[in-house]
Amino acid sequence: MAAGARAAVPGLTQLPPLSLYVHLPWCVRKCPYCDFNSHELRGGAQLPEDAEQGYLAALQADLEASLPLVWGRSVQTVFIGGGTPSLFSPGAIERLLQMVRALLRLAPDAEITMEANPGTFEAGRFRDFASAGVNRLSIGVQSFDDRLLSALGRIHDGDQARRAIETAAERFASFNVDLMYALPGQGPDDLERDLRTALSFNPPHLSYYQLALEPNTLFAKHPPQLPDDDTAAQMQERIEQATAEAGLGHYEISAYARRGHRARHNLNYWEFGDYLGIGAGAHGKLSFHDRILRQARYRHPQRYVEQAMRGAAVEEERVLGPSDLPFEFMLNALRLVDGVPAAMFVERTGLPVSAVYRRLGEASARGLLDPDPTVIRATPLGLRFLNDLQQLFLEEAP
Q: Tell me, what DSSP letter sits at residue 83?
């Protein structure tokens, strides 16, 4: 659908919470499983931090051009992702957040998260990121086992991961440890050691993802030998058991948190909230009373900078139609272990619940969805076969 076109979506009575996502696309080395828009720094190249002509200037131009779309709205969370954002200097991150505060209405209690790689760890650097305004760190550990880290192409080792978590615990009131399971050559004992190590730090939040072979990655081209589905399911069950015993609540299919430490930014995604995405390849979703808009920025950093400086960073834009909305909503909300109130479907899509009655009934009859009409919630079976459950809503029309 052409930019600016309108779809026949009933009016939204209120707009959802708004977040900001900022993409910093550079990394030291591209991991073979990574399908994110990330680019290796080659040949000793320097990060384009220059405030006048570099990437930060492009981000500012992108944000300034986007202001009419979010005018007057308060931003509840900020997430700086990549790539490896912790490659950027604390000074650059401070300038970025100053720019965000100057241009947007940032909530006083806004959650400001930044991704960090233990391979870029320095104690003083973590301290300075906190001083720059970052109040939550997400540390990409993936494993503490050097053998498994090597198989994943990571640039850090287990000792660096442990030191990074120790420092994050000293500097940040909230942080996340990002781990993966069902890795090449990983067995139950390996998983147990990773779990025991991670939980020994009493992390406020733990993300634990199953490794997937994504298209257009090195692993997709040259697939490693992974644990079979039954073994992966047993690993997932062990993770759920161990985290519960450690006092971490399982609130999303891959997320576990202590009370008060759920990832507010990610929750906004899962509850079909709004987010403005700036930076190379960043995606966004913005609601208006008469439409819901999806955007995508130019992916290649140089192309993005050129276009952003012209006030034209958006490469693709489309309005979601009534037939798109059920699947878009369920793709996110069904990931939440406790589900969402059925009324949230109406609030966030502008469609009546009757638009999905047939598919809700079908999913409930198959044991994938809770039959309670006041909530949209996957059963334990539905969470295990989440893709199948989500697909039921793919072609739903009102």
A: S
